[in-house]
Amino acid sequence: xxxxxxxxxxxxxxxxxxxxxxxxxxxxxxxxxxxxxxxxxxxxxxxxxxxxxxxxxxxxxxxxxxxxxxxxxxxxxxxxxxxxxxxxxxxxxxxxxxxxxxxxxxxxxxxxxxxxxxxxxxxxxxxxxxxxxxxxxxxxxxxxxxxxxxxxxxxxxxxxxxxxxxxxxxxxxxxxxxxxxxxxxxxxxxxxxxxxxxxxxxxxxxxxxxxxxxxxxxxxxxxxxxxxxxxxxxxxxxxxxxxxxxxxxxxxxxxxxxxxxxxxxxxx
Length: 268
Fold this sequence. Notes:
With about 270 residues, this protein is of the alpha/beta class. About 40% of the residues lie in helices and about 10% in strands. The protein has a single domain, classed as Rossmann fold, CATH 3.40.50.10310.
């Protein structure tokens, strides 16, 4: 295992050149956002999650794995939160162009894989679209758009059903994880907006429709919450955050190990 930072931008240009030429050379690009996370979490929540979890994951990987992290992208596509002060959102076209330009340069160096390691739920679809376009532009490089919280089956054991369905933002999971990673950044307020559908100003969705899932709608945060929280942060605690942190690190360390030990995905 390694204790050295696996930052691509910490390399000299000859070392960067050599890194890109290694068999299975891989870059991971953390994506976050600068957006409101209620009155108790920092604007940088998603970016902090992406950077911190990824570093801990890479620290667990064997030294011989040719994998490095790019500097994070701390401002993302966050139009749903712009009615709350502090949120800075770039356009979908700008973020798409950024992925294409940086990705094509990484491919020109010789890198064989680029993972988009995203912690902001509001740009999952956009980064998937960007990855597909980049794959066409750079056919010799595999592109893998990932979301921090996806595929963690053990979350069902830790997060109640209602919170998993409606706790989309600054609720139980995110608040607890921040209490584990950076407790000094967590405010004392514990807002509840998990009962947003009962507010007089918001109509309940028709049966079968939801915030996200099989039949979602393009909601804005102000449709659902006066505090910026979508979910219930009241029972957040550091112990739960510690469990979540370990789940995330174990999950992604396992997936990246499997990837680095394979020839997948195939690239023609």
